[in-house]
Amino acid sequence: MSAVIMDGKAFAERIKGEITNKVLKMDKKPALGTILVGSDPGSIAYVDGKHRDCAQVGIKSIKVNLPESATTAEVVKAVKELNQNPECTGFIVQLPLPKLVNTEEVLLAIDPNKDADGLNPINLGKFVLGKNTIIPCTPKAILALLTEYKVKLSGTKVLIVGRGTTVGRPLSILLSQKPNNATVTLAHSATSNLSELMKQADIVVAAIGSAHFIKPGMIKYGATVIDVGITRTDQGLVGDVDPAVAQSVSAFAPMPGGVGPMTRAMLLNNIIELAK
Predict the structure, then answer these.
(1) Is the per-residue pLDDT at 3 higher than 90?
(2) Is this structure's pTM higher than 0.85?
(3) DSSP structural state of residue 154
Protein backbone atom coordinates (compact mmCIF):
# COMPACT_ATOMS: atom_id res chain seq x y z
CA MET A 1 0.00 0.00 0.00
CA SER A 2 1.15 3.51 -0.78
CA ALA A 3 -0.56 6.38 1.01
CA VAL A 4 -2.48 9.22 -0.53
CA ILE A 5 -0.34 12.24 0.33
CA MET A 6 -2.50 14.99 1.82
CA ASP A 7 -1.18 18.03 -0.03
CA GLY A 8 -1.71 20.91 2.38
CA LYS A 9 0.31 23.29 0.22
CA ALA A 10 -1.95 22.94 -2.83
CA PHE A 11 -5.11 23.04 -0.72
CA ALA A 12 -3.89 26.17 1.08
CA GLU A 13 -3.24 27.91 -2.25
CA ARG A 14 -6.82 27.22 -3.27
CA ILE A 15 -8.14 28.61 0.01
CA LYS A 16 -5.97 31.72 -0.38
CA GLY A 17 -7.50 32.28 -3.81
CA GLU A 18 -10.96 32.21 -2.23
CA ILE A 19 -9.80 34.62 0.52
CA THR A 20 -8.38 37.01 -2.09
CA ASN A 21 -11.82 37.25 -3.69
CA LYS A 22 -13.45 37.89 -0.31
CA VAL A 23 -10.96 40.66 0.54
CA LEU A 24 -11.60 42.37 -2.80
CA LYS A 25 -15.29 42.66 -1.90
CA MET A 26 -14.68 44.13 1.58
CA ASP A 27 -15.13 47.87 2.13
CA LYS A 28 -12.40 47.99 4.76
CA LYS A 29 -9.31 45.86 4.19
CA PRO A 30 -8.52 43.55 7.12
CA ALA A 31 -5.12 43.63 8.81
CA LEU A 32 -3.20 40.91 10.64
CA GLY A 33 -0.95 41.88 13.54
CA THR A 34 1.86 39.72 14.89
CA ILE A 35 3.85 40.04 18.09
CA LEU A 36 7.20 38.27 17.93
CA VAL A 37 9.41 38.15 21.02
CA GLY A 38 13.06 37.19 20.57
CA SER A 39 15.00 35.89 17.58
CA ASP A 40 14.19 32.19 17.34
CA PRO A 41 14.85 31.28 13.67
CA GLY A 42 11.81 29.00 13.46
CA SER A 43 9.48 31.63 14.89
CA ILE A 44 10.91 34.33 12.62
CA ALA A 45 10.46 32.14 9.55
CA TYR A 46 6.91 31.26 10.56
CA VAL A 47 5.87 34.88 11.18
CA ASP A 48 7.49 36.02 7.94
CA GLY A 49 5.52 33.33 6.13
CA LYS A 50 2.29 34.64 7.62
CA HIS A 51 3.01 38.14 6.34
CA ARG A 52 3.89 36.82 2.88
CA ASP A 53 0.51 35.10 2.87
CA CYS A 54 -1.15 38.38 3.82
CA ALA A 55 0.53 40.20 0.95
CA GLN A 56 -0.60 37.47 -1.43
CA VAL A 57 -4.30 37.81 -0.52
CA GLY A 58 -4.49 41.57 0.07
CA ILE A 59 -4.54 41.58 3.88
CA LYS A 60 -2.50 44.33 5.53
CA SER A 61 0.36 43.50 7.91
CA ILE A 62 1.26 44.98 11.27
CA LYS A 63 4.53 43.67 12.71
CA VAL A 64 5.57 44.13 16.34
CA ASN A 65 9.01 42.71 17.18
CA LEU A 66 10.30 42.72 20.75
CA PRO A 67 13.74 41.68 22.03
CA GLU A 68 14.40 38.40 23.87
CA SER A 69 14.81 40.48 27.04
CA ALA A 70 11.22 41.80 26.91
CA THR A 71 9.32 41.48 30.18
CA THR A 72 5.79 40.21 30.62
CA ALA A 73 4.65 43.82 31.16
CA GLU A 74 6.26 44.93 27.89
CA VAL A 75 4.61 42.11 25.92
CA VAL A 76 1.23 42.84 27.53
CA LYS A 77 1.68 46.53 26.61
CA ALA A 78 2.21 45.52 22.96
CA VAL A 79 -0.92 43.36 23.12
CA LYS A 80 -3.01 46.21 24.50
CA GLU A 81 -1.75 48.56 21.78
CA LEU A 82 -2.96 46.14 19.09
CA ASN A 83 -6.25 45.73 20.99
CA GLN A 84 -6.77 49.48 20.61
CA ASN A 85 -5.41 49.84 17.07
CA PRO A 86 -8.46 50.38 14.78
CA GLU A 87 -6.46 49.23 11.73
CA CYS A 88 -5.79 45.82 13.27
CA THR A 89 -8.58 43.32 12.55
CA GLY A 90 -6.96 40.52 14.54
CA PHE A 91 -3.55 39.45 15.75
CA ILE A 92 -1.47 36.63 17.16
CA VAL A 93 1.29 36.39 19.73
CA GLN A 94 3.87 33.96 18.33
CA LEU A 95 4.39 31.05 20.73
CA PRO A 96 6.36 29.81 22.51
CA LEU A 97 7.33 32.97 24.37
CA PRO A 98 10.68 33.23 26.21
CA LYS A 99 10.63 31.37 29.54
CA LEU A 100 10.64 34.55 31.64
CA VAL A 101 7.42 35.82 29.99
CA ASN A 102 4.13 34.72 31.59
CA THR A 103 2.28 33.25 28.60
CA GLU A 104 -1.03 32.95 30.47
CA GLU A 105 -0.98 36.64 31.40
CA VAL A 106 -0.23 37.60 27.80
CA LEU A 107 -3.06 35.48 26.37
CA LEU A 108 -5.48 36.86 28.95
CA ALA A 109 -4.70 40.38 27.74
CA ILE A 110 -5.77 39.68 24.13
CA ASP A 111 -9.14 41.17 23.16
CA PRO A 112 -11.30 38.09 22.38
CA ASN A 113 -12.67 39.94 19.35
CA LYS A 114 -9.15 40.23 17.91
CA ASP A 115 -7.89 36.81 18.96
CA ALA A 116 -6.88 35.32 15.59
CA ASP A 117 -5.42 32.16 17.18
CA GLY A 118 -8.46 31.52 19.40
CA LEU A 119 -6.23 31.11 22.47
CA ASN A 120 -7.71 33.72 24.80
CA PRO A 121 -9.36 31.85 27.73
CA ILE A 122 -12.77 33.35 26.86
CA ASN A 123 -12.59 32.00 23.31
CA LEU A 124 -11.22 28.66 24.52
CA GLY A 125 -14.11 28.45 27.00
CA LYS A 126 -16.68 29.05 24.25
CA PHE A 127 -14.87 26.47 22.14
CA VAL A 128 -15.13 23.84 24.89
CA LEU A 129 -18.87 24.56 25.17
CA GLY A 130 -19.31 24.00 21.45
CA LYS A 131 -20.03 27.67 20.78
CA ASN A 132 -17.26 27.82 18.21
CA THR A 133 -16.40 31.34 17.13
CA ILE A 134 -12.69 31.43 16.37
CA ILE A 135 -11.23 27.93 16.22
CA PRO A 136 -7.47 27.55 16.94
CA CYS A 137 -5.66 27.50 13.60
CA THR A 138 -3.84 24.15 13.66
CA PRO A 139 -6.82 22.04 14.81
CA LYS A 140 -8.93 23.87 12.22
CA ALA A 141 -6.31 23.05 9.57
CA ILE A 142 -6.24 19.35 10.50
CA LEU A 143 -10.04 19.10 10.34
CA ALA A 144 -10.03 20.85 6.96
CA LEU A 145 -7.49 18.35 5.58
CA LEU A 146 -9.44 15.36 6.90
CA THR A 147 -12.61 16.75 5.36
CA GLU A 148 -10.97 17.57 2.02
CA TYR A 149 -9.63 14.02 1.69
CA LYS A 150 -12.94 12.50 2.81
CA VAL A 151 -11.51 10.72 5.84
CA LYS A 152 -14.36 9.26 7.89
CA LEU A 153 -14.61 10.76 11.39
CA SER A 154 -17.93 9.72 12.91
CA GLY A 155 -17.35 6.76 15.22
CA THR A 156 -13.70 6.58 14.18
CA LYS A 157 -10.93 5.94 16.72
CA VAL A 158 -8.56 8.91 16.75
CA LEU A 159 -5.31 8.94 18.70
CA ILE A 160 -3.68 12.32 19.31
CA VAL A 161 -0.12 12.04 20.59
CA GLY A 162 0.61 15.31 22.40
CA ARG A 163 -1.59 17.34 24.75
CA GLY A 164 -0.38 20.90 24.09
CA THR A 165 -2.81 23.81 24.28
CA THR A 166 -2.28 24.86 20.65
CA VAL A 167 -2.85 21.45 19.01
CA GLY A 168 -3.59 18.35 21.08
CA ARG A 169 -6.14 19.55 23.60
CA PRO A 170 -8.25 21.75 21.30
CA LEU A 171 -8.09 19.15 18.51
CA SER A 172 -9.42 16.45 20.84
CA ILE A 173 -12.41 18.68 21.60
CA LEU A 174 -13.01 19.67 17.97
CA LEU A 175 -12.98 16.12 16.61
CA SER A 176 -15.25 14.80 19.35
CA GLN A 177 -17.86 17.54 18.87
CA LYS A 178 -20.87 17.20 16.60
CA PRO A 179 -20.95 16.73 13.64
CA ASN A 180 -17.45 15.17 13.67
CA ASN A 181 -18.30 12.62 16.39
CA ALA A 182 -14.91 10.91 16.51
CA THR A 183 -13.89 8.80 19.50
CA VAL A 184 -10.73 10.53 20.66
CA THR A 185 -7.87 9.37 22.88
CA LEU A 186 -5.35 12.02 23.98
CA ALA A 187 -1.96 10.44 24.70
CA HIS A 188 1.11 12.02 26.27
CA SER A 189 4.45 11.26 27.92
CA ALA A 190 2.80 9.37 30.80
CA THR A 191 0.67 7.12 28.57
CA SER A 192 1.74 3.56 29.40
CA ASN A 193 0.14 1.65 26.48
CA LEU A 194 0.98 4.04 23.63
CA SER A 195 2.12 1.30 21.23
CA GLU A 196 -1.14 -0.60 21.77
CA LEU A 197 -3.22 2.56 21.20
CA MET A 198 -1.37 3.36 17.96
CA LYS A 199 -2.10 -0.13 16.63
CA GLN A 200 -5.83 0.37 17.34
CA ALA A 201 -6.29 3.90 16.00
CA ASP A 202 -7.88 4.62 12.63
CA ILE A 203 -6.37 8.12 12.65
CA VAL A 204 -3.12 9.12 14.37
CA VAL A 205 -2.15 12.77 14.87
CA ALA A 206 1.46 13.26 16.00
CA ALA A 207 2.12 16.54 17.81
CA ILE A 208 4.97 15.99 20.26
CA GLY A 209 8.01 17.57 18.61
CA SER A 210 10.16 14.42 18.69
CA ALA A 211 12.02 13.74 15.44
CA HIS A 212 10.69 10.64 13.62
CA PHE A 213 9.22 9.27 16.86
CA ILE A 214 6.63 7.25 14.94
CA LYS A 215 8.18 4.63 12.66
CA PRO A 216 6.91 2.01 10.20
CA GLY A 217 5.25 -0.89 11.97
CA MET A 218 3.94 1.23 14.85
CA ILE A 219 0.73 2.25 13.05
CA LYS A 220 -2.24 0.08 12.06
CA TYR A 221 -2.16 -0.92 8.40
CA GLY A 222 -4.43 1.39 6.39
CA ALA A 223 -4.71 4.14 9.02
CA THR A 224 -4.57 7.88 8.35
CA VAL A 225 -1.54 9.72 9.80
CA ILE A 226 -1.22 13.49 10.35
CA ASP A 227 2.26 14.81 11.19
CA VAL A 228 2.18 18.11 13.11
CA GLY A 229 5.52 17.98 14.92
CA ILE A 230 8.54 20.07 13.93
CA THR A 231 12.07 19.41 15.20
CA ARG A 232 15.25 21.13 14.03
CA THR A 233 18.02 18.59 13.33
CA ASP A 234 21.39 18.58 11.53
CA GLN A 235 19.46 17.43 8.47
CA GLY A 236 17.02 20.33 8.73
CA LEU A 237 13.43 20.47 9.98
CA VAL A 238 11.77 17.08 10.36
CA GLY A 239 8.42 15.88 11.65
CA ASP A 240 7.32 13.40 14.33
CA VAL A 241 6.63 10.71 11.72
CA ASP A 242 9.20 8.79 9.68
CA PRO A 243 8.14 9.37 6.04
CA ALA A 244 8.52 5.62 5.43
CA VAL A 245 5.24 5.19 7.32
CA ALA A 246 3.54 6.30 4.08
CA GLN A 247 4.17 2.82 2.64
CA SER A 248 1.66 1.15 4.96
CA VAL A 249 -1.06 3.75 5.66
CA SER A 250 -3.97 4.92 3.51
CA ALA A 251 -3.43 8.68 3.85
CA PHE A 252 -0.52 10.74 5.16
CA ALA A 253 -0.11 14.47 5.86
CA PRO A 254 3.68 14.90 5.91
CA MET A 255 5.88 17.56 7.42
CA PRO A 256 6.64 19.75 5.52
CA GLY A 257 3.80 20.33 3.09
CA GLY A 258 0.85 19.05 5.10
CA VAL A 259 -0.53 20.84 8.14
CA GLY A 260 1.86 23.84 8.13
CA PRO A 261 0.59 25.63 4.99
CA MET A 262 -2.99 24.88 6.03
CA THR A 263 -2.46 26.39 9.50
CA ARG A 264 -1.37 29.65 7.87
CA ALA A 265 -4.37 29.55 5.53
CA MET A 266 -6.70 29.02 8.50
CA LEU A 267 -5.15 32.05 10.21
CA LEU A 268 -6.10 34.17 7.18
CA ASN A 269 -9.56 32.63 7.32
CA ASN A 270 -9.86 33.62 10.99
CA ILE A 271 -8.80 37.18 10.16
CA ILE A 272 -11.65 37.41 7.62
CA GLU A 273 -14.11 36.04 10.19
CA LEU A 274 -12.96 38.58 12.79
CA ALA A 275 -13.26 41.39 10.23
CA LYS A 276 -16.88 40.42 9.61
Answers:
(1) no
(2) yes
(3) T
